[in-house]
Amino acid sequence: MKSSRFALAALLSLALAPAFAQDNGMYVSVSGVASGATLTSTEAGTLGKRASGYDLTLGGAIGENVAFEATWADFGSRPLSVAGVGSGEMTARGYGLHFVFSQPVIVPGLTAFVRAGFMHTEIESGSKTFGAKVPSVGIGAEYRLNPDLSVGVSYGRLNRFGRATPALDLDYTRVSLKYHF
Predict the structure, then answer these.
(1) Long-range pairs for 128-135 at CB < 8 Å and ≥24 separation?
(2) Which parts of the chain sit beneath pLDDT 70?
């Protein structure tokens, strides 16, 4: 376990090394997040559909069209009622590592992107917490307002969020403000 964490840290340091040498290679963003969750089994209970939250991201370019991001996300709270367990408030959150592949499009300053990676997710309901690492994918677009500032919108999906029983699928939309160093 420790050796795999060390190997991951070593790979990340090698991958991020070029980003520190580039002009405008690093960035930080803050996003408003609207999320919707679905129980994979409707017989298991009910779940409030929409919630709002935020995420914070630190990223860096590792190539002309490739970046690496570390993200913390709070997907908000919603009512939950599970057969045999009870009801209450469910809070969903997670942190993750993603590669972002971008490509400029027809309009100057506009870029389309695809995000892929993993998130460690947690669902907390009452005194119980469920957590797991799950794949995370998304698509979006970003518009560069000036050399230091851009705005973006994206859609993402997490399947079997939190590995809870019953399992949840979580879709989210982000509206981001990004500052480029």
Answers:
(1) 128/85, 130/162, 130/163, 130/164, 130/165, 131/162, 131/163, 132/160, 132/162, 132/163, 134/158, 134/159, 134/160, 134/161, 134/162, 134/163, 135/159
(2) 1-24, 39-48, 82-86, 160-167
CA–CA dist 62, 178 (Å, integer): 17
Give the contacts of 89 (CB within 8 A, at least 6 positions apart).
77, 78, 79, 80, 125, 126
Q: 76: phi > 0 → left, psi -120 to 50 → alpha, else beta; which?
A: left
Quick one: tokens of 75? 């997907």
pLDDT of residue 40: 63
pTM: 0.76
Q: How far apart are CA 146 and CA 109, in angstroms?
A: 9
| pLDDT (tens digit per residue) in 70-107 | 999 998 887 777 665 567 777 888 899 999 999 999 89
User: How many C-beta neighbours within 10 Å does residue 163 have?
Assistant: 15
Q: Are the C-beta atoms of 104 and 111 separated by less than 8 Å?
A: yes
Q: CATH classification of 2-180, choosing from 2.60.40.10, 2.40.100.10, 1.10.1040.50, 2.40.160.20? A: 2.40.160.20
